[in-house]
Design a protein that fits this description.
226 residues, TIM Barrel, 2 domains, 4 strands, glycosidase, 6-phospho-beta-glucosidase, Glyco_hydro_1
Length: 226
Amino acid sequence: MHGPVTERDESTSCIKDRAINFYHQYPQDIQLFAEMGFKVLRTSIAWTRIYPEGDEAEPCEAGLAFYDRLFDEMAKHQIQPLITLSHYEMPYGLVKKLGDWGNRAVIDHFEKYARTVFSRYKDKVKHWLTFNEINMALHSPFTGIGLSGEPTKQEIYQAIHHQLVASARAVKACHDIIPDAKIGNMLLGAVRYPMTCHPKDVLEAQSKNREWLFFGDVQVRGTYPA
């Protein structure tokens, strides 16, 4: 990992440093996508490109300008962007000050970030996702909500609740700022079927299915499943 002020030694640069190099290669990549017939491209805005520490008074113009160029390039090839606001990330500055999604104060910072990008790209992006696979928190609490160690179920569900509140606030802000936008979030899931008709297997399958419904119900119905 390279910090924001770390100098790279380009003499040792290799694929592990550059990955797909989308930051510099996006015009060529998007042209290839267009040649393949892509009409929609799902990608993410990095929260840290907009607010590097998470709590700055003003966003980073260089970061905002990059996404302007990216979305303009997509429009040139008639490709619609489908944009995720958070893909398992939080600015490290917020991590140091607030910890993780277990801290309700993170919600306000996420909403500020969301409002910033909605206002900036309201004429360029009409399809949004708040969080990638928001229910991943149940299976990988560190990845999904930043909880380290062995958190209790109460700690996990409290952090999930904060993330769902942040998602709801972002959805409301999006509809206020971009009335013709469509927004939701992505769920990781599949229907579980019992291995046998034994009651224990049936109950276990029902229990796992309810874990997915927990995240869907609160967003669609406005309540947690009873």
